Each structure stands twice: as structure tokens, then as C-alpha cells.
Amino acid sequence: MTSNSLSLFTSSATNQYSAALHYYLQAGAVCSDFFNKAVPPDVYTDQVIKRMIKCCSLLNCHTQVAILCQFLREIDYKTAFKSLQEQNSHDAMDSYYDYIWDVTILEYLTYLHHKRGETDKRQIAIKAIGQTELNASNPEEVLQLAAQRRKKKFLQAMAKLYF
Hints:
Subcellular location: Chromosome; Nucleus
Keywords: Chromosome, Nucleus
Protein name: INTS8 TPR repeats domain-containing protein
Number of strands: 0
Helix content: 55-70%
Shape: globular
Domain INTS8 TPR repeats: 13-162
Number of domains: 1
Strand content: under 5%
Family: Belongs to the Integrator subunit 8 family.
């Protein structure tokens, strides 16, 4: 296989992952009034979310992977942490921190940025952790509402990328 045909294959594969995300997001948007209502759990099953995670990973959108890991019935910390360690991310990592509602993931981001000497990004992660609606002492309904709000905004932002 020549380098030209390899790059053509890579481009084709990339287009397939983008197209797959387009269809997954379109399905969610249609049944949720463009994510203004929750996407029904029979539409975004764990299997569908895992496929979306795989697409984002193969597109090198590693922060999106970490955020989608929160959508699973049980958060996949192993995949989230591994994706955040990636240095070749094609998404604007710190611009996505407002979509993260799991404090453990935000704490890991703070640790990573400290370890890498990225003080500006570390401050953004610390600011995200400090949002009062994420306080673990809040009633469960407040935490659920914060998660729903972040899910909605994240899915709307992703839809704008892939539509």
C-alpha cells in the first residue's frame, strides 16, 4: 500500500467516524427536540454511547471521549482517564470542561495539568470543580439537574460540529 492510498484510506475512515457520529447525534436530536428533553435510554443505550466513544477516540477527540464516559450507566473512569492523557487531541480540551459534571474526572484533569505544568488549564479545571451545583453535599436532584444541563449543552455543541 502506498502512502497516498494509506492517506486516502485514513481519510475515508475518518469520514466514516464523523458520519457515524452525525447519525448517532441526529437520532438523539430527533427524539429529544434537539436535546431540549432527555434522550430516551432506549436510543442512547450504553452500547450506542460506547460506539460514540470509539468514534471520538478514533477522531482524536479525547476530551469528548471523557465526557461521553459520564453518559454510561456506570462512568468508565479507565477510558476517561486514558483519553485525557492523550497528547494528540484534536478538540479544544479546556473549552469542554464546563460539560463535565463528574468531580472525579475534573480532579484528574487538575492533577494532569499540574503534572504537565499547564497552569492556565489547571486553573480552568479548578474553576469547573468549584461550581456550586457540583458540590457533593447538594441534594441528589440538584446534582442530577446539573448533569442533565451539561449533557444537553454538550450534545448540542457536538451536533453543531457534526451536522
